[in-house]
């Protein structure tokens, strides 16, 4: 069915795709990142349930993220973002805590001593051949840097209140569990030449792995960089919103495993209301930076089935600020291709006209 | 949305490093963060328009989009398809005007081109043995689906037209003799069918690239069909100049010059008129290929005019045009890939829209 909103604008995707008998409410996720604790239970539960292969566990040398981004083998991705910020936004209970950048005395001392911290770190852990307990090495380092004796125990003071107030940073952590957005206007689905990608009765977007021939078109079409081709398998994979589980009346694995209800699963209409209330609540509590992302049916992809509450700009989390489905301009694309094609015919006629050599 | 000054500058923003870095200049906007923070705009190479300074933030400089998983097969498939299309147009004209050598050369080239194109397309699939799943559906929103059907109509037609050229090898009597006599009209009919679908074959590939989230491809969607269409004509003309005798190659020369002109103008516009996305065409890999492509295309077009009395110069010009046409596809392909790898191409234009208070809304 092609209607004026088939390519752009608000739309209820399932009926538009032909699910008109026994209509189901559109299902989706509301991911409230303000209560995410970065535990990665969602990532693990997703991999377990969907038998998604392991794809590397190395830290990336930035924050505590060892997943990096969504892909064929990561259908949930927890982003970790460190930002320098006054502790508790400098409110009364935090008065007296130092502000400003981190102290670097320890790090400087280590560097001056000619120690390669990364090489050292690779040998840490008593399970390593030639390794040693972390505590021993830490104690050694602290002594070398002229600090107190290190007992391997956490302090009892508030951070930054002890005599050694240096080495403290003002930092705020943002954590956010990213996932396929199950767009209203899903470019991946629109460009799939085999029909492997389809719209389910719940309005979600799923790849049929027995149909996909690995053309890779969906990978380039996704404005969020979600779907990807699996190495060694050749086919495209992404989150299915646990089509098997929700078809049985269950909850997707990630939402089931989330210990803080950061990931909420349900009817998209209800989730949108819930999200609006949560933003109001946060604004009332003085968290002015709270904002929703992907909740608006009038946005460039017709609204996301999986949308988010964020505490900073979307691009800080690796999300595009204002994505637009590429097929919005499809009419213009074919029109210009048609003009170029007609032009080619015209040139072909012209070069044979006149009958010269 | 409350403005959020705290947390400025982190996560660190990274720029794609390139030779352009050296040309970036401050436009008197103090406080533009550089190095660990702040992406900067800069001069578009080649004296194009200036892209305003742009600070942007990202998730530790990591890309937002997935880079295309397509390998070199895909630009090769774009080139060979265009080559086939241009050749079929020449072949149809040659068969009407009785230029037998030109017709034979271009019909053969069309078959070789479409054969190679189909091979490259299938070879690039993650599961090549499932290529026939493309024939399950017709989907206008998928240029690859549309292209599959264009290929399905064009391929057999171009094949039949080329096969008809083998008729003189058949005996003059019996069933095969009948086939020999029918080859002429059947070949003409097939040739016309191929010529009718050839322009679609040569231009749909531009929509194929444009209908993606890669900024450099999508933003060029009005111009790419002209780049590829012109390039296809130039390569078809190149085949004629290379393989047909001088006396018959007039239309090929004219087609090559016209195609080269359209391609060069459209490409110039792509490189200068797309704002930040134009910068992707000036990144190292695409720039090298596009400069080489332009030099070869200009040389080929000039050779087509000045060398029209020399078989050797014509043949060399034909080769230059073919190489130029191939490099065009590889250069455009690389630009799209580059625009997905650097988050700046995604974040900056979208953030600017939001800042101006003009987010995309239906």
From TrEMBL, chain A:
Where along the chain is [4Fe-4S] cluster 1 bound? 36, 39, 42, 258
Q: Does the keyword Nucleotidyltransferase apply?
A: no
> Could you confirm whether the keyword Repeat appears in this record?
yes
The chain positions of domain 4Fe-4S ferredoxin-type read 27-57, 171-202, 203-232
Instruction: List where the protein spans the membrane.
Output: 337-355
The GO cellular component terms are: cell envelope
Q: What are the start and end residues of every segment in region (Disordered)?
A: 1-25
Record-level Gene Ontology MF annotations: 4 iron, 4 sulfur cluster binding; metal ion binding
Q: Identify which cofactors the protein needs according to its UniProt entry.
A: [4Fe-4S] cluster
For the ligand ([4Fe-4S] cluster 4), the binding residues are 192, 212, 215, 218
Free-text remark on how the cofactor is bound: Binds 4 [4Fe-4S] clusters per subunit.
- Record localization: Cell envelope
SUPFAM superfamilies on file: 4Fe-4S ferredoxins (SSF54862)
Q: Which InterPro entries match?
A: 4Fe4S_Fe-S-bd (IPR017896), 4Fe4S_Fe_S_CS (IPR017900), FDH_Electron_Transfer_Unit (IPR051555), Formate_DH_Fe-S_su (IPR014603)
User: For binding [4Fe-4S] cluster 3, which residues are annotated in this chain's numbering?
Assistant: 180, 183, 188, 222
Q: Sorted alphabetically, which keywords does the UniProt record give?
A: 4Fe-4S, Iron, Iron-sulfur, Membrane, Metal-binding, Repeat, Transmembrane, Transmembrane helix
* GO terms classed as biological process: cellular respiration; formate oxidation
Question: Where, by residue number, does [4Fe-4S] cluster 2 bind?
Answer: 46, 239, 242, 254
Concerning PANTHER family, the annotation shows: FORMATE DEHYDROGENASE, NITRATE-INDUCIBLE, IRON-SULFUR SUBUNIT, IRON-SULFUR PROTEIN
Q: What is this protein called?
A: 4Fe-4S dicluster domain-containing protein
Instruction: Supply the source organism for this entry.
Output: Vallicoccus soli
Higher taxonomy: Bacteria, Bacillati, Actinomycetota, Actinomycetes, Motilibacterales
From TrEMBL, chain B:
Composition bias of kind Gly residues appears in: 29-48
Entry's transmembrane regions:
74-96, 146-170, 182-206, 226-247
Query: Does the keyword Cell membrane belong to this entry?
Result: yes
Per UniProt, subcellular location reads as: Cell membrane
Q: Write down the membrane topology.
A: Multi-pass membrane protein
Q: What GO cellular component entries does it have?
A: plasma membrane
Q: Which InterPro entries match?
A: Electron_transfer_protein (IPR052049), NrfD-like (IPR005614)
Keywords annotated in UniProt? Cell membrane, Membrane, Transmembrane, Transmembrane helix
Q: Which stretches does the entry tag as region Disordered?
A: 1-48
Skewed-composition ranges (Basic and acidic residues): 18-28
Organism domain of life? Bacteria
Q: Which family does it belong to?
A: Belongs to the NrfD family.
Q: What is this protein called?
A: Polysulfide reductase
Provide the species name.
Vallicoccus soli
